[in-house]
Known about the structure:
Strand order of the largest sheet: 1-2
Structural class: alpha+beta
Oligomer: single chain
Number of strands: 4
Number of domains: 1
Strand content: 5-15%
Largest sheet: 2 strands, antiparallel
Amino acid sequence: MDKVGQFSVDIIVRRTRLGYGVDKELGPRSRLAGLSEKYIQKRKGIRLDATTRPARSNLTNTGQMLRSMGFKVLEPGKLLIEPEGSRDDGYTNIQIAEFNADRGRVFNNVSNNEFLQILRFYKRNFTDLLKKVRL
């Protein structure tokens, strides 16, 4: 499950950095809500993470929240994926994720297409494991 969990986290982080979110579990991906002109101007005056630009809505300002994404295995076949830890600005990464979700920037769900990717990844690795055991 560790490999599946990390693969799932990587999918969510990659999609979010490209500027997409998923409003509800197994729903379609959609563009994240845009940034206001006032906020874009503010971002032009600060040092941003290398993975973003001032006008890009991809939930990356410092990059701390997306870099903190992790997972926990709740039970066989069930993962909890969420941001972990605290930040250097005094907030926790989960607080920042909730703040963004309240403003229409939901990112921590898996779309139907991503679920199918994860399922294929799992089957591919599980099938390889079965073949090794039978050798």
